[in-house]
Amino acid sequence: RLGPDGRLSPALLVLDDPFYTLDPDRETAALKLLAAFHKETGWQLIILTKDVTVPDKAAAAGLAATVIGL
After folding, report:
1. pTM
2. Over the stretch 8-50, which tens digit does the pLDDT of each residue have?
C-alpha cells in the first residue's frame, strides 16, 4: 500500500490480547477507537484473543469480525 508520499506504508495492525486488562467500559471505548482508526486509514486489523466475547463486541463497535478458531 502506498502512503501519501508515494512510499510503501504498512496497512496491517496486529494486536495480541489487547483488552485482557481493561474493564468493560474501557474495552468498549478501545474497540470504538479501533473501528474509527480502521475507517479512517483502511488498515486491516488482526486481534488475537482467547476471549470468545470479543468478536461480538467488535461487531457492536462497528468492526467486521471473522473468527478463526485454533
Report:
1. 0.82
2. 777 899 999 999 999 999 999 999 999 999 999 888 999 999 9
Residues 6+ apart with CB under 8 A from 18: 30, 47, 49
Q: Which residue has the cell 478501545?
A: 30
Local structure of residue 22 (DSSP, 8 states):
S
DSSP state, 57?
H
Query: Phi first, then psi: what are they for 61, rounded to 5°?
Result: -85, -5
Cα-Cα end-to-end distance for the chain: 29
**What is the C-alpha to C-alpha distance for residues 42 and 35, in angstroms, rounded to an integer?**
10
